[in-house]
Amino acid sequence: xxxxxxxxxxxxxxxxxxxxxxxxxxxxxxxxxxxxxxxxxxxxxxxxxxxxxxxxxxxxxxxxxxxxxxxxxxxxxxxxxxxxxxxxxxxxxxxxxxxxxxxxxxxxxxxxxxxxxxxxxxxxxxxxxxxxxxxxxxxxxxxxxxxxxxxxxxxxxxxxxxxxxxxxxxxxxxxxxxxxxxxxxxxxxxxxxxxxxxxxxxxxxxxxxxxxxxxxxxxxxxxxxxxxxxxxxxxxxxxxxxxxxxxxxxxxxxxxxxxxxxxxxxxxxxxxxxxxxxxxxxxxxxxxxxxxxxxxxxxxxxxxxxxxxxxxxxxxxxxxxxxxxxxxxxxxxxxxxxxxxxxxxxxxxxxxxxxxxxxxxxxxxxxxxxxxxxxxxxxxxxxxxxxxxxxxxxxxxxxxxxxxxxxxxxxxxxxxxxxxxxxxxxxxxxxxxxxxxxxxxxxxxxxxxxxxxxxxxxxxxxxxxxxxxxxxxxxxxxxxxxxxxxxxxxxxxxxxxxxxxxxxxxxxxxxxxxxxxxxxxxxxxxxxxxxxxxxxxxxxxxxxxxxxxxxxxxxxxxxxxxxxxxxxxxxxxxxxxxxxxxxxxxxxxxxxxxxxxxxxxxxxxxxxxxxxxxxxxxxxxxxxxxxxxxxxxxxxxxxxxxxxxxxxxxxxxxxxxxxxxxxxxxxxxxxxxxxxxxxxxxxxxxxxxxxxxxxxxxxxxxxxxxxxxxxxxxxxxxxxxxxxxxxxxxxxxxxxxxxxxxxxxxxxxxxxxxxxxxxxxxxxxxxxxxxxxxxxxxxxxxxxxxxxxxxxxxxxxxxxxxxxx
Length: 805
Hints:
The protein is built from 30 helices and 23 strands.
């Protein structure tokens, strides 16, 4: 009876636990505004919980990263992908909307093997950094006769001797090319990126070896167990170097606070910069919590082996076993320590046992009444008190509202009923929060380009959300359902420009003549020209106040864009369709979170910087890749009014924790404000320019935000607004930062300087640019006094051959 009751209770609690899974489809069917992946029916819920959007990483058997160099399997070049099901509400059943027959390329099996630890095709060069590049040799079985045809030589027209000579010539050229490349790589003239490109270019001629089992295991222990677990364990119980993400460099390492141990791993610790020492993520515990945990684990095993195995199993499964399952690649987009919290709980349990072990030992030598309080006090100091004192400042979020302030700055930079294209998580999620939770600027429609390739997201933005109107998209669901128009190929049919409307009409055709059929039977729509023209209705532009009146004379008749000559993707197509249907009725903005041309729909020449965003305007401001920071025209009056209304979320406070994201966001703030300062100065409004400088310096203090290279324009602005004293003060602060950095680099072993070449040269040249600011503004007295110091620090690194001043 008791056993049956236990079984029923277990089943009940299991059902209660799994019942929480129903919250997702219930919420999704309510058609809430933020409804990622839309898990509203059985097929979508299954895909959601299987995390199909993230793809699959093989654990025990599968391809290595070298599969990117593999050729198709000659016997079975293609294989079926998983069919895509959708719920047909009218028919009352699930139907296949794309069977994906022969949709997936099937590479030969030479690059598959047991336990593929190095498997991601997105981390090829990083894998090479760990285990060296994959060995390769010329394929002796390669058929060069087909290669002759690529040179326009008909093999049938040659005699046997001529054919042999032609083949020998091609083979000789290939062998020479391989020899020259090997020499260049071994001498350091080319690196892993060039190695990857070489293998990609000539893979058909080569036999490229996959990583061996031993190399996979070595990578697992060195990176997946060592860097991606042991480092995190040390963070929690030994100490942490700083709050910056580590990529096998001098950031994000574990740190004990015991000098000789830290110097053995991280180099000299006696000449650290103030920025390094004052980083709030720098926490040292001197191994004390870790030692307590080890003592506790041993004590636990001796006292109760059975329960020890339970905790050990929890520790191992939530640490090393989890790492084997996740099969992480170098490098992840962010630190992944949060995934391992279960193992940290297990280790913390052993810390408790460690406290009792010390008490159990102490009471054998002193009275228990004394031993108890003594051990308790000592372990409280070595554990909770030490951890709290070290970690409080970088875990205290009180008074910091910088994330939502940034979101509001983006939204407040937009005009009413605007469409704002964002790129990814960091410039989308804060905006979603501001709208969904705080109800802020709900008239702005956020369109995340990263989600735009998905049919469920396109469905959602075609509906009204909050106070914003639906996004104008002409395609119906069947025309963009998953697997349909995922990409469009360019098949040139004409060199003439066609209107964007004609382009959309053509690529929306379901006619077989508007498609290309591949050898695997898959069909893809194509576009007949990459030259597109977008007509501009000037009356509509003026009516909707797209640009300021003083720019009416600059409005163009049309905008010409050149699409890529290979392909465009679904998100590009949807963005073009939105532009075509909008016809300047609603303002369109870009968040500026990327430099890629496609994220601006190839219209970087037609942008206007307004606050934190770029507005699409029918006025040309030529963009040059040499000066990316100056993208778009600055409407100084409009932007000044926007900036003056910003709330900074207490970012200027010296008592809050300025986390890495807050500091990184200062790059866009400073860059845009610097451009506003420059525009105001050029227009002769020095008073307003000085106010903007003050706002930047007050809300992004130099000592707390870093990224000093982007502060230089404000020093230049101080000179140009007549405040030489403030300019000198700011430059002196910045020069001090560079001096500290360069002195620290000099203290490191000279053999390691090549590994930090970029950092050294960046700081030397940023230091030099400050001298040029003095020189350009005629402050020769300051320039001459600072020049000697610069030359002294520059001379510390003669191997990099940077010019003196």
